[in-house]
Amino acid sequence: MNKRTFFVLLGVPGAGKGTQAKLLQERLGLPQISTGDIFRYNLKNLTELGLLAKSFMDKGELVPDEVTIRMVEDRLGQDDAAGGAILDGFPRNLIQADALDEMTADYGGISLVPLIQISDDEAMRRITGRRVCRTCGAVYHIEFNPSAKEGRCDLDGGELYQRDDDKPETVSNRLYVYYKHTSPLIGYYFAHRLLAEIDGTQGIERVQAELMSLLVESENAE
Q: Which CATH architecture describes the domain 5-221?
């Protein structure tokens, strides 16, 4: 068996999964695979799967699981994933989790599923406080990383704005979708003895240190 390492990061929106996945990618040499990035790539490059997804999106419909699954399977087949991957945002439901199990079965399956825990109030505070520069795309936070001049980017003086998906009503809906569709994965991976909980309210470096410790421990246990 050609053993590969697959980690699935779980947590509510705003828990810091993307930030931690990028740090793990740098340290472990495994690609961060995000469904958002995959969708953007396929749509931008008008791939067969991208056009298929667009046909549903243009009608205001959700992209079916089977299309998302095919995109992820295609991504896992690329050269940089020959040793495994860090999955951020996939799976989002039990159907996708079953599909991921099948995709990784020949390589040893999922190694570990860290659950980065923060409260809903903390998620709302983190996401709604984000501001983005209209010109260069630099990201700030009104509380944790404010710009020197309110409403203006430190780099180019561009206007800072709040993205639509960072507004309170949108964040509330994202949390609703998470609890309805994604939170069952917590029980799923707990039952498979793969779940490991981490306090996501700690600093980025501390969360990363705990993640690395858990990952090393899981690898040594195999």
A: 3-Layer(aba) Sandwich (3.40)
